[in-house]
Specification:
Layout lengths: L1 E3 L2 E6 L4 E2 L2 E2 L1 H13 L9 H11 L3 E9 L2 E16 L6 E8 L11 E2 L4 H13 L7 E7 L15 E11 L13 H16 L4 E4 L5 H17 L10 H16 L3 E8 L2 E11 L2 E9 L8 H15 L4 E6 L3 H4 L4 E11 L9 E2 L1
Parallel strand pairs: 7-9, 14-15
Antiparallel strand pairs: 1-2, 2-5, 3-4, 5-6, 6-7, 6-8, 6-17, 9-16, 10-15, 10-16, 11-12, 12-13, 13-14
């Protein structure tokens, strides 16, 4: 714990969970801080981070909290972990890394800040982090969005590297229809797909509610697996722990009116599914899947176009297809936006030229 001009840095390792449930007061403060962090996406919600912790069981998770006169004004969900690294011509070594919680299932990782205190909180966090050389060798923050306050401190920009790319489709002011924001050939494809669907007897778009969510998730898992099996790949949902994570977080996001899980049914059979988050000014197209047996109906295009039309109707300013460079995203006319990585070696125990094994 460190006190500087009414600011106090706290490390919460055990305190933030009580019997695998979030501490009531801290959870409320965490939610309030998320509410006033204007750029924070779904992936920084307390529900998301806590579900991640409970599903993937990191060995050394902790929360780095900053308070101003007792009020929570900054929060970094962190963890220590170890990985094997090697140097050319030398044996493998174990590198100790300090990173952000949420990896693997989160397209953006970041910290939460009260905007009124950001200029004071960021230096305090960096000061604490650089003092951890007895516990870790490397600080590595990946998947940071361009809006992250961690990237705004010029003294650390020399450590900034491009990490990944997200595919984003802007929705211009005044746009009222999907055909106004996508390439003409894509709109023609959608019209043709809808006509084929009608000739095949029609279909129905459903959005999961409390009573249908469990079944809709199982359809998503099945269809996502089927989609990737076409390419002889397992897909991210092949792991039981990831499926359990989504079974855990989906009800909480539905209750917050964030989750919109779309299903396309033909003759009562679910042939496509889209797992989306409508949050603030963005619609996040997180996952989708379809039954390859119905590929002639273009079910992936149909389910995504339905979600995108809702995003426009709800006044979203961007539709974000998130990570991954799949070819289908380019057909929607997306723009590529970089995410970033900050890497800072704070210990000389491991040579700087080592690489993860």
């Amino acid at each position: 714990m460190r006190l500087v001009q009414n600011y106090r840095v706290e490390v919460l390792a055990r305190e933030f969970l009580v019997n695998d449930a979030p501490c009531g007061r801290l959870f409320t403060e965490w939610q309030e801080l998320w509410d006033i962090s204007p750029a924070a996406p779904t992936f920084q919600r307390p529900e998301w981070i806590l579900a991640w912790r409970q599903s993937f069981h990191p060995r050394k998770p902790f929360l780095l909290a900053v308070r101003f006169k007792g009020k929570l004004v900054g929060l970094a969900p962190c963890l220590f972990y170890e990985r094997s690294v090697s140097e050319p011509g030398a044996q493998e070594m174990t590198e100790r890394v300090l990173g952000l919680m949420g990896g693997g299932v989160s397209d953006y990782l970041d910290i939460l800040l009260d905007p009124q205190h950001a200029q004071n909180v960021i230096p305090l966090l960096w000061q604490w982090l650089h003092q951890q050389n007895n516990h870790c060798d490397l600080i590595e923050f990946t998947d940071l969005p361009a809006t992250s306050s961690l990237l705004q401190n010029s003294s650390f920009l020399k450590e900034k590297q491009s990490h990944d790319r997200c595919s984003v489709l802007p929705v211009p002011a005044g746009a009222r229809e999907l055909k106004q924001i996508i390439p003409p050939h894509k709109w023609e494809n959608i019209r043709n797909a809808r006509n084929r669907l009608q000739r095949a007897g029609g279909g129905r778009i459903e959005i999961a509610g409390e009573n249908t969510l469990e079944a809709a998730l199982e359809d998503l898992f099945r269809l996502h697996r089927a989609r990737w099996a076409q390419e002889a790949l397992p897909g991210v949902l092949s792991q039981q722990s990831i499926r359990e994570f989504h079974r855990s977080i989906a009800p909480a996001l539905l209750k917050k009116n964030v989750l919109r899980l779309y299903s396309l049914r033909v003759n009562g059979i679910c042939i496509a599914s889209a797992y989306t988050f409508f949050e603030r000014e963005q619609a996040l197209c997180y996952l989708h899947g379809y039954d390859p047996q119905y590929a002639h109906l273009s079910p992936g295009t149909l389910i995504l176009s339905a979600a995108m039309e809702d995003a426009i109707r709800f006044g979203k300013k961007t539709i974000n297809f998130l990570r991954g460079q799949e070819d289908f995203k380019k057909t929607w006319g997306v723009q590529e936006e970089d995410t970033f990585c900050l890497r800072m070696r704070i210990s000389n125990r491991i040579p700087a030229n080592t690489r993860a094994a």
